[in-house]
Prior knowledge:
The protein is an alpha/beta fold. Helix content is 41%, strand content 17%. The mean pLDDT is 90.
Amino acid sequence: MERIDGGEIIVQAMLAEGIDTLFSISDISQSPMLRGVESHAMRHVGPRHESAAAHMADAYARATGHIAAVAAAAGPGVANLVPGLMCAWKEGVPMLAIGTQRVRRSMHAVRNGRFQHGPQLEVVRPITKFAERAAEARRLPELVREACRHALAGRPGPVYLDVPADILLEEIPADDVTILDPSVYRFAPGAPDPEQVRAAASILATADFPLILAGHGVHRADAAGELRSVAEHLGALVMTTAGARGAFPEDHPLSVGMGFPWGSPVHMQSDVILAVGTQIGETMQFLMPPAWAGPDRQRLVHLDSDATSIGVNRVTDVALVGDARAGLAALDVAVREVTGPREPNEVGAGYARDYQLLKTGVTESYLSLDSSPVHPGRLAAEFVGFVPDDAIICVDGGNTGLWAHLSLTFRRPRSLMWTGHFGHLGTGLPYAIGAKVAHPDRPVFLFSGDGAFGFNLQELETAAREGTKVVCVVNCDSAWGMEVLHMQKVAGTTIGVELGEVRYDEVARALGCHGEFVADPADLEAAFARAVDTDLPSVIHVAVDAAENTNPPGLDDFASMYAAETT
């Protein structure tokens, strides 16, 4: 009778879930599983650090819309997964994490000082939606099914399976293993309650100044088309959270861009807000005064797949629990039944025009700055003019992120990789690699600060080895730039903010990549062109004016929000 081991079982279960790529550092305890990965022609991407592996899986899931997988060895390997799991948990990204564990006999013995053994389940449970340990090989398929069900239900997130090494080696009769297709045991959320949809449509159809606030859930549900249809029929302005940029074209006449960190007059003047796929979190000031008009002057319709996200941070007039795509489609039908196409509010349309002119004007004004070292605004403006519309752009860093978000315009869904909820530095390069693995035919760019870039600099070797051609633009001020100004204000000192002088272009070449160094803005265009033309991953080290980098537009708004400790 044919027999099958636990490693092969878990690979077959992952394949049934549509998982075709595994991010992990090879380890002897994972050998049976990695053998299955190889025999089934799954792609294996081996980074230099487990946290980077998890960030790569995070980006892969965001770029594709499918659950991604990461694995790590017992003890330190699983410990290193924690930053990546935490980011995915905060950002709502579905990820299956598999950690090996010491053999069952060792785990249940009363022994002190066991090597590479730790409370893995207890560590990851608070930052995962589901975390369980496998007890035997025959239970692996149902555990993978249950984990993936939790990862994709409601607001998505990471899940974790703890698998003792001997279970991956355990052989059982193949007839005892049942691998099911997800269609028979997992069901996607549908449209919200029809009565609630009609109530929402009535409110929106009679609004004088409707505003749609789109969150990352629009990307997760592939609902960009439905969002645009509702907005255009209602003449509603559209604002996105940071994580939803590109869900609505930012050069559309109804777009007022990203709502954070820069305030907008529409915060105070819209009378009805339709929030879709967002927790309405702190970066949106919870839609509460003084940043927003508040519940007494603004009615709120909130559509989300997770009922526990509705009515928490702000009271809701109509709650729509359901998939963002199905919910917007149902709302589109209901709105058209009660009103014909509407023109945007005249004042609101003016705000949208002002937003477009301001964004263009600010970016163009930076292009005339010829100082050397490079003004960071000039760098961001040149970068924006160089990347193609179909690019995936990863952003990493504090002030660097503010420069990037001010200048960038996103027109397509799933085009931005950024840890907007958790603000975790060091995600940028792994995100870029994960996105390129997901979409090898799309150009992938990283815009990063030098401090953030240093977190996972070693992954340049991974990019070169894996053939993931990404272009990394590093905004180098040799400091933790975001801390400089406010540390001076708060503490009267800037202790610990200086970084050493590092030539990241030379590091890139040493790790098998292409490197460019730029200190004069006149050299940016040629450096960008050479980086794109090479077949290698590239790093463009741009020496920027450190003083100018300390105070990008939006920093005071960000600092005020962060220091307010709102409740």
